[in-house]
Amino acid sequence: MVVAPTSGNNVWCAAAGGHLTTHQVITALKTSGVAERVRHRRAILPQLAATDVVGRDVMRRCRWRVRFGPVHAEDLPQYLADDRRKTDRMRRARFGVRERLEMAASWAVPSGLVLGVLALALKPSWMLPLLGLCASLAVSVFLFYDRIPGPRRLLFGGSALAVALPVVLIAGGGGGALLAAAGACVLLTGVLTFDYTGSTPIEGSSHFEERRWRITLDLDRCRGVYSCWEVCPEACFEKREDVRKIDLAHDDRCVLCGACIVQCPKDAL
């Protein structure tokens, strides 16, 4: 295993943000001494690095042939056992209950620490209820937010208020407690949903300039290399083996990561 620095970011964010690039991969391969320890020149990179690591450029500049492995590292043993063949499941970014709860925890802990410290300084008896509110809102956002139709932030924030305020009244809270609960709901809703799309693999981030772009396919240029099919984390492409072409069959899934554009050697995308 050769480790390349990503400035503390996960692979996908690092590649998309310029912290894991072709240059970093080449530098890691050249300076690590790995070439003297193995008899081949084949490097398996995480699939989500494909947004900014150009496999053919790595080959051209340092003679290492790049293959993009599974999205998730836990699938590597099976991928290697199957002679480096990826199943559809290995190619897709997953966002199931476990991943959703992990993201909820990563947002709830720092948010809860800030609220907890404020409550401890101003009104210690409010600390535990506010921490509970923070945890429940974080879990609710990452479990249900993408399933809400219409103006999601407004509907979610309104629902949070509709639940929190009656609970405070039933618990015997006064006007101050009601204001604190309302303020915490508004604040937490804003924080947790500010870049929800950029915190998940199911939608493109709402805070980048190209968010309104769409990927198009030029079939005249397509030569059926299928590099786009290999690196797309949302399985937007399907192979057309009969004509040796690719089909952008599920463009509604596209999150604009750009990996297909970066890897296509024929500029067909």
Which SSEs are present, and which pair or pack?
Layout (H helix, E strand, L loop, with lengths): L10 H6 L5 H10 L10 E4 L9 H8 L2 E4 L7 H6 L6 H4 L5 H26 L4 H18 L7 H19 L4 H19 L33 H5 L6 E3 L4 E3 L11 H5 L6
Parallel strand pairs: 1-2
Antiparallel strand pairs: 3-4
Helix pairs in contact: 2-3, 6-7, 7-9, 8-9
What does this structure look like?
This protein is mainly alpha-helical and 269 residues long. The chain folds into three domains: 11-91, 3-Layer(aba) Sandwich (Rossmann fold); 97-199, no CATH class; 209-263, 2-Layer Sandwich (Alpha-Beta Plaits), CATH 3.30.70. It has eleven helices and four strands. It has helices at residues 11-16, 22-31, 55-62, 76-81, 88-91, 97-122, 127-144, 152-170, 175-193, 227-231, 259-263; strands spanning 42-45, 65-68, 238-240, 245-247. The chain has a two-stranded parallel ribbon. A two-stranded antiparallel ribbon has the order 3-4. A hairpin with a 4-residue loop joins strand 3 (238-240) and strand 4 (245-247). The protein is elongated and about 70 Å long. It starts with 10 loop residues before the first helix and ends in a 6-residue tail after the last helix. The mean pLDDT is 90.
